[in-house]
Amino acid sequence: MPIELLMPALSPTMTEGNLAKWHKKEGDAVKAGDVIAEIETDKATMEFEAVDEGTIGRILVPEGAQGVKVNQPIAVLLEEGEDKSALGAAKPAAAPVAPKPAAPSPSPQGEREKTSATVNPSPLGEREGPAKREGEGAASATAPARPVAAPAANGHARIFASPLARRIAEQAKIDISSITGSGPHGRIVKHDVEAALKGGVAPRAAGPAARGPAPMPASGGGGITRYSKDQVAALAGGTPYTEMPITGMRRVIANRLAESEVVPHYFLTVDCELDALLKARADINDALGVKTSVNDFVIKAAALALRKVPMVNASWSEDAILKWDEVHVSVAVALPEGLITPIIKNADKKAIPLISSEMRELAERAKSGKLKLEEFQGGTLSISNLGMYGTRQFTAVINPPQSAIIAVGAGEKRAVVKNDVLTIATVMSCTGTFDHRVVDGALGAQFMAAFKKLIEAPGALLI
Question: 130 Cβ partners below 8 Å, 6+ apart?
C-alpha cells in the first residue's frame, strides 16, 4: 500500500514549514537515509531524509510551497511491486502560500517591527544600560495570541467605559461611543462624559451604535501587553511608517524573549583584565597558524566556570531543578533576519583551537541556514558578545530554559590600580544574568568570580 510522506516537525516550535527543494522527482527510487527534500523551518533549512524504501509515486506539494502544515502529506511513496495504479485517489494538495503583507494605508494601521531593513538584529534580547522591564511577561511560543477585545452583541468592538460614565451617558441619552476617552488605554471616565455634555453632544440615534474608540490592548500571559497595529500607530501620534512583515524567525524570537520575562532575573558584572589573554591568543595564533578570537577564550572560560560552580549549569522545572551532566555553550549569532544560537557541545573538554574551528563552521552554516536542529537547540548556558560593535557593557535576557547568560562587552584600555599604583590595562566588562529560582545571588557571584579568574589566567584555559 502506498506510503504518505508527511511534512515533518523539525523543531519543537514548528507548526508549518516551506518546501524549499525536492531532491527526488516522481519515478525516482528512494532508499532509507536518502535526502529527498529540503525543508525551511523558522530557524534554518534542514534536510528531510526517507525512512522507507520505494519509488516516488506522486509529489503532492510543489517545490517552493510556503506555509505547509506539519503532518500534511507532501508526497506518496510506492512500495516494491506497486505502480501508479496503486495511488488511487491521492491528489496533489493545494500548496499553501504565506500571506502577503498588507499594503500601507494613509491611515495608521502598520506595526513597527525590527527587521534587517531597519536595525541590526539584537543578540539574545540584550539591552543597553539599566535592565528595566515594564508591563512585560511570559508568552508561550505555541499559544495563540489572545483577542484584542471582545466583540459586542451588535458586532462592533466593545466600548471601554467606567460604570459611572455609562450611567451618566444613559441618563443624558447620549451615545457613549461618540465620546473620546481620556482614561487608561482610551477608557471613558466620568470627566469625559461631563466634558461632552458641556460641549454639546448629539442624542443617541436609534439603531446600531457607532463604532467606539480603539479597544484596550489585550494582556498576554504574565501581563505582557499586546497592541494591535491601530493602537501602535495611534500611540506613535500618527507618525508615517512602513509596514514590514513579521518573519517566522522574528516571531519565534519575540515569543521566546517574552517567555523569559516570567523569569526573576538579576545581574552581576565583573571587569576582567585581558592583557595576559591577548598575549596567549597571539602566541597560539602565531605558533599554530590559526586564528582564534577572544570569544573562543570566553566560551572555554564560561564552560570551565560551570564545572567549578555546577549548580549554575541547571534549569528550573515545576517538578524539579534539573542539573545538567554536560556543558553545552550556546553562542548568539546575528543574522540579517534575526538571531540564532549555535552550540559548542562539551565545550569544557575541547581545546581553544577546536572551539574556534567549530564556532567558525557553525556561524557560516547558520548564515546559510544549514544548521541542524541539534546544533542550535539544547545549550545549558548562553553567551552574547557585542564587544566587536564597540559596546562597553550591557545586560542580556536569559534564553529559557537556561538559567544564565553572559553579556560580553568590548575590551578597552582603562586606568586601574595595582599594588596602590595607577596603571593602564585592557579591561572587558562581562555581565551575568541569572534565574533566581535556580541560582541564588551568592552562587551567581561565585560563578562570575570563577569566570573572571579563568579569563585573567588564560594558562588554565589551555590545559
Answer: none
Cell of 93: 494538495
How many structural domains is the chain composed of? 3
Residue 443 CA to residue 14 CA, distance in Å, equals 36
Domain with 81 in it: what CATH number? 2.40.50.100
pLDDT by residue (tens digit) across 308-350?
999 999 999 989 999 999 999 999 998 887 888 999 999 999 9
146, 235, 253 from 113: Cα distances, Å: 19, 15, 12
Alpha-carbon span 245 to 437, nearest angstrom? 36
Q: Is the pTM of this model over 0.90?
A: no
> What is the pLDDT averaged over residues 29-55?
84
Q: Which residues are catalytic?
A: 436
CATH of the domain at 435: 3.30.559.10
Cα–Cα distance for residue pair 218/198, rounded to 1 Å: 32
DSSP states along 247-272: -HHHHHHHHHHHHHTTS-EEEEEEEE
- Tell me: do 240 and 285 sit in the same domain: no
pLDDT in tens, 72-111: 999 998 887 777 777 765 555 444 444 444 444 333 333 3
Give the up-direction half-sphere exposure of residue 270: CA atoms within 13 A in the CB hemisphere: 19
Residues 6+ apart with CB under 8 A from 414: 271, 424, 425, 426, 427
For residues 408 and 298, is the Cβ–Cβ distance under 8 A?
yes
Domain of residue 52 covers 3-87
